[in-house]
Amino acid sequence: MKNYHKILYFLLIVVVIFQLSACKNNQKKPVPQKKSNTTQKMSTPKELTKIENDTETIIKECQKLQESQKSETDKSSVSTLAPKGKQLSTSKNQQEGKSTGQEGNKQKQQKESPEKKSWSTIDKTVKDIHTNWNVLSPIAAKAGASADLLNNVSTAINTLTTKSTNKLLNDTMIAANNVYKYIPEIENYFKTTSPPDIKKLRFYNRDIEFNSATEKWDIATKDINELKAIWKVLRVKLPKDAKNASDKFDTGLSELEKAVQAKDNTITKIKSNVLESDIKSLEKASVSKK
């Protein structure tokens, strides 16, 4: 009987020791923490949006200057082809109104010419880009942007400054677009409402238009290939709602490629403008509805 009690006590002690050991092991096991599938990104900084808008402003002002120059050239051609009698009559009218013209010139001198006004706008906008970049650069670095990317943006902005200061019209447009090129690169580190790669399509499309104007067809051809490569990856990522816009872009890209292959800068400009409309449609169709 005594042996029976001893065995019973021994078994109870073993059970208690086993339970205590199990409890300690459970306490030592770390509680697994849920990991988020996606890293939370900051909202797009307002400075990045301002730089994007500023590049658009510069390009539009340059296009206005181009149209103005073309208009002046056309007027000059018409004047040269005008009948002699008409030219003499015009000259006589100019002499009769000389005094009135002198007064008008004084008033015109007081007003800034459209060309000067456009370049003033461009100069001011370039300075704004520098200011906003100085604020954005450390924010982008903190978000994960590499030193190489930040240096490339700085170089592009400095090139734009040089071209605009020297009033090189087409070069200024290309330089402004080259700053725009890095907008989607930086956007990748922030939350966006639509895929940043759509803006890459815009960059290459405009680069084709601007370089074809000076018949740099080697650059335009490379840009076409870049467009096709980006579009191949981007298209499968777009929502179903963007199908119509995607089909339009497919057609527009094919038409632009034909124009570049034909080395026709007039048709290339038209096809590039059409493709820009298709890109805007893509942006609207791909806006996140979350």
Mean pLDDT across residues:
84
CATH first level of the domain at 194-290: Mainly Alpha
Identify the CATH architecture of the domain at 194-290: Up-down Bundle
CATH superfamily of the domain at 194-290: Oxygen-evolving enhancer protein 3 (PsbQ), four-helix up-down bundle
Q: What is the CATH topology of the domain at 194-290?
A: Four Helix Bundle (Hemerythrin (Met), subunit A)
Region (Disordered): 26-121
Biased composition (Basic and acidic residues): 47-75, 105-121
Biased composition (Polar residues): 87-104
Biased composition (Low complexity): 26-35
Structural description of this entry:
The protein has 290 residues and is mainly α. Among the domains are: 45-54 and 115-191, no CATH class; 194-290, Oxygen-evolving enhancer protein 3 (PsbQ), four-helix up-down bundle (Four Helix Bundle (Hemerythrin (Met), subunit A)). Helices cover 80% and strands 1% of the residues. It has 12 helices and 2 strands; from the N terminus they run H-E-H-H-H-H-H-H-H-E-H-H-H-H. The chain has helices at 2-28, 46-81, 84-96, 98-110, 114-143, 147-165, 169-180, 183-187, 197-212, 217-235, 243-262, 265-285, and strands at residues 42-43, 190-191. The chain has a two-stranded parallel ribbon. Helix 2 runs antiparallel to helix 5, helix 6 packs antiparallel against helix 7 and helix 11 (243-262) packs antiparallel against helix 12 (265-285). The longest helix has 36 residues, at 46-81. The chain is globular, with a radius of gyration of 33 Å. The N and C termini lie far apart (77 Å). Mean pLDDT is 84; it is low at 30-38. Residues 87-104 have a biased composition (Polar residues). Residues 26-121 are annotated as: Disordered.
